[in-house]
């Protein structure tokens, strides 16, 4: 099915689809219906959704079309179908947090981020699967099922986590974008595994009100989508503490906004800190090759590469962050996970219960280590504008090969949360096996405008973000 003015509508960007809706070249009902058709056809295998709001989504889409016809514009997401990770409260809807330990609770409030989506006119199409209480990077869930990475329909490969269902839904065209959370890579890891753009925001840039907490020190709200333009659009809609305070950078109104317009001209002379040689040993060769090629592309447009050692190894950053996540996870969830009469994902239970061994004194030392690491990184970043590191050290492996005792995907993810940096993951190639490879542009706190501009500049001269899983390309 091809809609007037949009080829393969399920893979169109938010910016392009929004323009088509405003120009009346397609309708919201058509877009939402197409996503619902794909959910019906694909989700039996891909297992992205916990719940689909079919009737409500269609009714909302028709209402948005009525507003378009009347010349009423609610906001930049009007009529666009968006999915929400099942960690966000939506009044009147069930919330599980990826767990079956207790019966699903019906929410009595709506999360600030979801409310902002609605105020901008978005059509919420359903809730997506997550690792149990968002505590895991592979994307596996032993109790509710693991979503299937759509880039390989023959072998069940990891989607990345914890925003696993959100990534699968967008990559497979079952939603045009999705809300996720990032505590140690949980937006960027699945975005990288599934060939998407994933935005990890600075702590506090987007309200966490109405979100199930895991590690408040590191938890952030983010988005998964198809382009840096889309990520800028979503950030503008979502940003602001508690849904009220102003965003930390000027609003991105549409595709012609000056934040991204002329991005290629505005990146010349930017200095990008590249992954140090001693950190490259843990990275899969295909990942390094694709990221190096992306850096070459940007260098041809004036971005300067800077080589320097990190003030502290990524492994040490990962360890500090992991201990903080366990300590705060246990503080949030310990009484629940201590119960022997309930069923949990055993790997998540192990991670949560590890936090009871972190004493108050040890926790304060970890917080102090975090503060020192932040100061050290701030000094180290003074000569550069951004860091450009791989998103994941490996491409998507088969679920059957996952070793849950190891956390290799955390190596390049957690340090960004520990240091409260912002980052955007962008597709930069495919491995010899045809699996997505991703690189992240990492900036100082509240530098979302800069990292998005650099990501957009790269996407102006590359086409990796336009690729979709080959087995799902029938429109």
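^ Assign residues to that structure.
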């Amino acid at each position: 099915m091809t809609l007037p003015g949009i080829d393969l509508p399920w893979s169109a960007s938010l910016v392009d689809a929004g323009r088509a809706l405003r120009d009346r070249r397609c309708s919201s009902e058509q877009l939402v219906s197409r996503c619902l058709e794909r959910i019906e056809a694909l989700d039996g295998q891909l297992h992205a959704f916990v719940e689909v709001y079919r009737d409500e989504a269609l009714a909302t889409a028709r209402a948005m079309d009525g507003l378009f016809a009347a010349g009423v514009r609610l906001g930049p997401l009007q009529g666009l179908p968006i999915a929400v990770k099942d960690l966000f409260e939506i009044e009147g809807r069930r919330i599980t947090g990826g767990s079956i330990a207790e019966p699903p609770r019906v929410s009595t409030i709506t999360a600030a981020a979801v409310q902002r989506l609605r105020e901008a006119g978005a059509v919420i199409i359903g809730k997506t699967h997550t690792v149990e209480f968002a505590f895991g990077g592979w994307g596996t869930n032993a109790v509710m099922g693991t979503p299937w990475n759509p880039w390989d329909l023959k072998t069940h490969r990891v989607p990345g986590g914890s925003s696993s269902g959100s990534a699968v839904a967008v990559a497979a065209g079952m939603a045009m974008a999705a809300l996720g959370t990032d505590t140690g890579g949980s937006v960027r890891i699945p975005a990288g595994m599934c060939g998407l753009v994933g935005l990890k925001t600075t702590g506090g840039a987007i309200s966490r009100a109405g979100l199930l907490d895991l590690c408040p020190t590191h938890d952030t709200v983010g988005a998964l989508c198809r382009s840096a333009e889309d990520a800028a659009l979503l950030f503008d809609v979502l940003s602001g503490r508690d849904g009220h305070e102003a965003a930390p950078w000027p609003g991105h109104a549409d595709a012609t906004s000056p934040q991204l317009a002329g991005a290629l001209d505005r990146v010349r002379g930017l200095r990008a800190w590249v992954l140090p040689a001693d950190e490259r040993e843990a990275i899969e060769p295909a990942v390094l090759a694709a990221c190096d090629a992306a850096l070459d592309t940007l260098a041809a447009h004036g971005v300067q590469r800077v080589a320097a050692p990190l003030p502290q190894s990524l492994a040490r950053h990962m360890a500090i962050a992991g201990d903080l996540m366990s300590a705060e996870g246990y503080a949030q969830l310990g009484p629940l996970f201590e119960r022997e009469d309930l069923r949990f994902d055993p790997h998540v239970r192990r991670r949560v219960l590890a936090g009871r061994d972190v004493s108050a004194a040890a926790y304060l030392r970890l917080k102090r280590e975090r503060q020192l690491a932040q100061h050290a990184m701030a000094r180290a970043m003074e000569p550069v504008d951004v860091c450009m590191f791989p998103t994941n050290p490996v491409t998507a492996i088969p679920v059957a090969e996952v070793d849950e005792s190891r956390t290799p995907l955390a190596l390049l993810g957690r340090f960004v949360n520990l240091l409260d940096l912002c980052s955007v993951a962008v597709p930069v190639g495919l491995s010899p096996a045809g699996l997505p490879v991703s690189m992240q542009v990492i900036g100082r706190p509240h530098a979302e405008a800069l990292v998005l501009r650099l990501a957009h500049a790269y996407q102006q001269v590359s086409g990796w973000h336009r690729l979709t899983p080959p087995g799902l390309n029938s429109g």
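The CA atoms of residues 115 and 243 lie 8 Å apart.
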